[in-house]
Amino acid sequence: MSARSRWLLAGAIAVLAVAGIAAYFLGGARRPAEPASAPVAVPAQYIGVKACGTCHAKELTAWKGSHHDLAMQHAGESSVLGNFADAKFTYAGVTSTFFRRDGKFYVNTDGADGKLRDFEIKYTFGVTPLQQYLVEFPDGRVQALSIAWDARDKAQGGQRWFHLYPGQAIKAGDRLHWTGLDQNWNHQCADCHSTNLRKNYNAQSNTFKTSWSEINVACEACHGPGSNHAAWAKREGGWERAPGKGLEVALDERRSAAWVRKDGAATAERSKPRDSQREIETCARCHSRRAQLTDDYRYGRPLEHTHRSALLQEGLYWPDGQMRDEVYNHASFLQSEMFAKGVTCSECHEPHTLKLRAPGNAVCTQCHQAAAFDVEKHTHHATGTPAAQCAACHMPVTTYMEVDPRHDHSLRIPRPDRSLSMGVPNACNQCHKERDAQWAADALKRWSPQPLPGHQGFAEALDAGFRAAPGAREALVAAAEDPRQPAIARASAIELLARHADARVTALLRKALDDVDALVRRAAVGALAQAGPEARVQLLPRMLADPALSVRAAAASALAGVPAERLGAEQRAALAKAIEEYLAIQRFNADRPDAQVNLGSLYAERGQAAEAEAAYRQALALDPGYVPAAVNLADYYRNRGEEPLADATLRAALKREPASAPLHHALGLSLVRQKRLGDAVAELRQAARLAPGQARYAYVYGIALHSTGRKAEGIQALAEAHRRVPGDPVLLQALATMERDRGDRQAAAGYARKLVELMPEDAQAKALLQSLQR
Prior knowledge:
By secondary structure, this protein is α+β, with helices and mostly antiparallel strands.
């Protein structure tokens, strides 16, 4: 597997040669330098909430009983909310019993082998609207039960056991089973529910020794270890040498600013621009969809220095940026006009109680004048009703984990017209379920004849990019180049442009490498990783010294397969250093199969065959159903000329994952190489059927049909795929040449014309059209 595809295939884990850092700032570059750290007397240590509370009693009192305080607890009389009085719950044919014995809490349920056993509940996880329970195993693995307690009042449907995956019949052996990989607390949950969490995974023994300084989210989870600050407060132990009162991070961005209404305006403005994101990114460390790259978290540093944030990707978000999967709040807030205007999390949320600063609409009227906005003329709903709440229209909810409704923090204007044009949800029909989107769009048009587009102007571009629609390239380029669009949207557009490589896109990516926002720089590196070696060698070496670890790692991955002689001595040294960082990221996440695939792919590109094979095999040992590991291992065998082993690997994986399009596609290609063309066509057809939106599978299937003499069927398969994915240039080129070769020059010219419209700067497309027109 190439560096250019490694990050796309490997999933959650994130996927360096310069003449010196000064090279960053040549040619008008705008990237920030790594912030300098002032010396301190001694490295700060964690001291606990009691020590913090000796001076900060008010904050400690506010924190007690909060969701942070109760994020994780030892199982006991006061912490366990669920019914353990021999309560029974049946799911997928398995009846689990919750009971008590010798003062402890237990569940009798199916283990990893599918057999019923008693498991002790060691910890509680959360309090409301649901509470989960954790079981600890001798190897240090802690697993979260998929049967949870609904902590809501009985009148709300609560006070019951329920399963987090109803209707899916999750059985032992599935990665979603409570004993499976995706219910593992050590990797999935721990870092955000405890303070000073250290995963401590040992890859050799496949064991954990996960530790924390406090079991819950305490003071130092947000403020950093407090020993130097305590020394400063007590004037002890070299306190005078501790900068900034010994604090690890000063969350003081609001201190010297105010929100004022200028000249009687209905909406307040910040008295001075917000000049950092320290507070927001402190919260985002946990309130975001992200991959953890290291547990060496530095308080106050940008998030991308230790994490890899998800962009607005298909499946995670709707094309207009509304949350779709469980993505938490950060990326949604980054799209909002509130973020652009300088709002921080604690403007609305009290950071210790975690409650709103004011009830209901009063939290909004802190800045938005009630006389203008908290009135029926604006809300179009009766004052005081739930429908007249600001959040009802501007922060619609999506329910996760069956009972947990969460507000979308993109704070958007309802756009039912986009429900009509791109199938996204809208706040109006979320309440008025008996009506359709056209009714909602007409209502908004009556209320506001002049359209209110909102802050998410990137929606149409991402929608075109998700669908690979005609015109997607131009729309994505426009969105990526528009400084008015949120940085996360520009980064998301750039990520989608990777499939549209041409001179204009390359020029855009070159410029994006110098963007002030790390998300944009990382997306540009990822897009250039799909380019040819010339572009990578020319543009990416300087990114090996980027301030953000996520960017350096992406650059290391993209350049790993470049021959050493293509790089200068300093560039080779920088690449070696960055590759060590990249390897450290994968080793930190070595308990995950995607990290093992990343390791295997890097080893394979660098000619370390034995290490590559071992990593792919380890990925399958961790998760026998992990498709990328099987595909990569088979490809590794193909490169070694061991096609029978490739075939056997893919067939074994298909027994576990019979509906996997990538496996059927890879097996079809293997059968082509084995000259078993009839069997190959059948596998390729299955891949195209299972993933109808994947143009690549349809293309290979159509070519296979054409090559085996079934030319009309091949053209038909490609034409059907083109109707599904009209903006894919490979399908258009294939259809144009096939129709030309069978003598239908008119049909061929039609496809070639679409290709030129799609890629107006592509010389080959123009030449093809000209030849057909002649």
